[in-house]
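Handoff note, outgoing to incoming analyst
You'll be picking up this chain. Sequence as last confirmed:
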Amino acid sequence: MSYVPKYILKRMIPEDALKKVGDGVELKMINLITTIPISQAPGDIVDLLEVKVNGKELSRDEKLKIGIKWGDKQYTLDNIRDAGDVPVNAELVFSLPSAGVNVGEEAKVEISVPQFNVTIEFSRVVK
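Most recent structure output, in case you need it:
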């Protein structure tokens, strides 16, 4: 698995990237690596993505509840292909099920796409 280097993660995932919102958590991420051709992703995107929060993997049903905000548009994993290609420097906001995280606590998040050999792993204090 290819991990994103820490110096890039620091800019990609700001220190205030995790924010408790209602029963869930918002994750702010800036795409700094490459254009993401979401519209061309093979198969069901829900099945391509693995998400762990504090070591607990989100179930398929939990992943289906993920919301993605990009600019003034909102998507789910069911319709994210409609977003087209996500350019470098685009800011994305993901709404995730809370997975038991609380304000003031550090949460470890791991997002991976095994088919493309990419893993983003980081820890941030929930705001």
